[in-house]
Amino acid sequence: MDNKMTLPRRDLLNWGIRGIGASAFAELLLKDQANASTGALLSHFAPRAKRAIHICLVGGMSHIDSFDPKPELTKNHGKQAELSEKPDIFFGRVGPLRGADWEFKPRGRSGLEVSEMFPHIAAHADELTVIRSMVSQSANHTPALFFQNSGFEFNGYPSMGSWAAYGLGAESESLPSYVVLPDGRGDPNGGSSNWTNGFLPSQFQGVRFGSGERPVQDLFPAHEIASGEEEASRSLLEQLNEKHRERTQLDDILSARIRSYELAARMQLAVPEVTDFSGESVATREMYGIGQKPTDDCGKRCLLGRRLLEKGVRFVQVFSGGPIAGSPRSSWDAHENVKQNHGAEAAKIDKPIGALLADLKQRGMLDETLVLFTTEFGRTPFAQSDKGKVGPGRDHNKGGFSIWAAGGGFKPGIAHGGTDDIGWKAVENPVTWHDFHATVLHLLGINHKRLTFYHNGIERRLTNVHGNVVGEILA
After folding, report:
1. Per-residue pLDDT tens over the stretch 384-436
2. pLDDT one-digit tens code per residue, 299-355
3. For residue 383, which of 95, 195, 351, 372 is within the disulfide window of CB 3.0 to 4.6 Å?
């Protein structure tokens, strides 16, 4: 007689499924399956960085007043611009040349020139990789913002943050892979279209964090629910989902929606913790300008951005500037007066961003974090005014402008490319948004040509059918 205990195959499987260990194992298998289905964590080559924080200036920062010194422009201040073609600008009022409103100085060991508009950022010049030859395809704010964020002129295409989250996968089980921190004065033109997941699965949508005690809208119920009632509701929902899964084989869209709700439940514990600054030292909060005017809003968002990155968020986006319309302007759209507008906007963000760079470096995070500082276009070297008058404002300029990056894999303390003598057109190594996006993905370990998603008969990608990695700015 055989004394060994035997179980029918079906009973054995049922026992295993109900066991705690088996349940945990099944959860791990499901995670692996989900990651594989999205290409998550499958780097095409060794990444230089694991995460990114993108500071997005809304309205069009003037490059010739910030990161692109033009002594010839200052020398010819007040003279009429000699242009070979009619400028493609927004208001079409071409006044005389206008020199920079801020003085440029060589900074650090590198000697990289940065203007006095950004003294705190300038102190980190040896960490910066400035691209002085950016070009865009639009001189209109909303489509230019879409180009900057998604590589397409129209809304509905996934943003760079969504593509990065899709390619890298989730590092945290309790927080989204992609978090957006808008300016306290409101969302930019196009609103959430700037951080949409487009046709990618919905878990890669940027999650908007606001201010106050409840930064994520509708994360918590409107009134308190007893724990027993909450558990019973979730149990019922799980049963209903399971029945639907058996009946329909659960398509990708519904599966992504279920994962989003599961993430929301975990976020109820994680969000209050990550947004609580009480554990940060007084010195750290002061460094970011928290509790001070005018830096409090941006300071809180930059510090929160660092804390989110520490907790495993892959991509954080910090906006500087709200809606374009309104008076006074709540963005970098300096049509009326560059000195007044840019001076006020820079005072809000310069200290917090300088603190972010210092904080990431002292924590040993900068080498594995991309810090991106961009704007949708630049501003004209000539004044926005009637001929003969040197007005205080500048119009939009898509033909040449500056952005910078720092951190994992960028060559620090350099300026790449260049505009002409007055800062009107990129003439040396022009860089498109597709090139920039390809370079960012490359540093995250992703080949931009291989990161694709099938949609409407096309293998879509962030860089469309364009883009080249800018090897000259890589360390």
Report:
1. 998 788 999 999 999 999 999 999 999 999 999 999 999 999 999 999 999 99
2. 999 999 999 999 999 999 999 999 887 777 899 999 999 999 999 999 999 999 999
3. 95
The token pair at 116 is 């006095």
Sketch the domain layout of the chain as residue ranges: 44-215+281-473, 220-274
Instruction: Provide the pairing of β-strand 51-57 with 369-375.
Output: parallel
- Torsion angle, alpha carbons of 289, 290, 293, 294, to 10: 70
Q: Which CATH entry fits the domain spanning 44-215+281-473: 2.60.40.10, 2.60.40.1180, 3.10.180.10, 3.40.720.10?
A: 3.40.720.10
pTM: 0.85
- 253: tokens are 């869209």
Is 35:388 a contact under the CB 8 Å cutoff? no
The C-alpha atoms of residue 163 and residue 467 are separated, in whole angstroms, by: 15
Residue type, 352: P
Examine residue 71 and say whether the peptide bond preceding it is cis (omega within 30 degrees of 0): no
